[in-house]
Write a structure and sequence with these properties.
Length: 325
């Protein structure tokens, strides 16, 4: 064993401080780590810049993974909202909660000031999800938003009430789906009717949509369907310059006691008929009360007093007739 005294001075040797011992250990480990890193860099011919890039890529990869997972969770939630199960029930619950809030706030005055007629449309928002909305036809006036166009095909039936010879929506929908499309318009002159009849993408009928009873060339919707032997219409488009306020009560009365036989409704609402605030509210809430859910609204490009509204019936959503991805 070594002596505990210093041979030069004859004094007792002093043990090095513990902190000094720790520092020696730390520096030894650090040196070993640096040596290992140097050997790795030399062996793999990897530069410091490349090492930094790899580190950044790893971090970016983790961030991207988190974003993907987040988007997937959003997609799953939206998908479930149109594919049944508890997510569909949650979407319905959120829809009903929003309707209550809308109804509580509804009115032509805000802080005592009259809002004007056009403000009525601001109360109605698309508060029901469709994960596969698609614009069919012109991006300007005339085009319509449908939910899951891919669910339509040659066996699908489409009614278009009111055309004014503007049929880019109908033609585009036929090109996409080959559906059986019927266009109804009794306001066209003989030359316009001839052109419509010559169009091979739809069937033209020189009649219009009426209320509960036949009035000249205006027929109830049930009568039209019975004549054409249709028991279900996949898409019902109505643009009849204000007739919507009288025909919809008659339509729903004709199909009282059962789900209306229309999958989607594309409706142009006009605010210039009668008491705007009451009429618009009564019409849209009537449609909602029969199981239809508003999934899109679109202000009309050419008519500031008009609003395009898209509905889908809850029975169509439950039956998975629309896309779930």
């Amino acid at each position: 064993m070594g002596s505990d005294t210093d041979e030069a001075t004859g004094k007792p040797r002093r043990a090095p401080p513990r902190n000094a011992q720790k520092q020696v250990l730390v520096w030894t480990l650090a040196g070993g780590l640096l040596l290992a890193v140097g050997i790795y860099l030399f062996a793999s011919e990897t530069s410091v810049a490349e090492l930094r890039t790899r580190t950044q890529d790893m971090v970016s990869g983790r961030v991207a993974s988190r974003v993907v997972k987040s988007m997937e969770s959003v997609k799953v939630a939206a998908t479930g909202a149109v594919s049944g199960g508890t997510d569909l029930a949650r979407a319905e619950a959120v829809y009903r909660r929003n309707v209550k809030r809308r109804e509580a706030a509804y009115g032509p005055r805000l802080d005592g000031q009259y809002l004007g007629k056009g403000a009525v449309f601001q109360y109605f928002q698309p508060i029901y999800p469709c994960v596969a909305e698609e614009r069919v036809g012109s991006w300007k006036d005339g085009g319509k938003w449908l939910c899951d166009v891919s669910s339509l095909g040659p066996r699908s039936v489409v009614y278009s009430i009111g055309s004014y010879e503007l049929v880019d929506f109908e033609e585009a929908l036929y090109d996409l789906t080959s559906s059986e499309i019927h266009v109804f318009d009794h306001t066209l002159n003989s030359e316009q009717q001839a052109r419509m009849k010559a169009n091979q993408k739809f069937h033209y009928h020189a009649i219009g949509l009426g209320g509960a009873e036949k009035e000249g060339r205006l027929l109830p919707l049930m009568t039209i369907m019975e004549t054409l032997k249709h028991d279900f219409v996949d898409v019902l488009k109505i643009d009849c310059e204000g007739c919507e306020f009288s025909v919809f009560p008659a339509i729903f009365q004709a199909f009282a006691g059962r789900d209306p036989p229309f999958g989607q409704i594309q409706l142009e609402v006009h605010e210039y008929h009668g008491d705007v605030w009451d009429n618009v509210r009564d019409l849209l809430t009537l449609i909602e009360s029969r199981g239809y859910r508003m999934f899109h609204i679109d202000m009309n490009w050419e008519c500031k007093e008009c609003m395009e509204v898209a509905f889908i019936h809850e029975s169509v959503v439950r039956s998975d007739k629309v896309a779930s991805t």
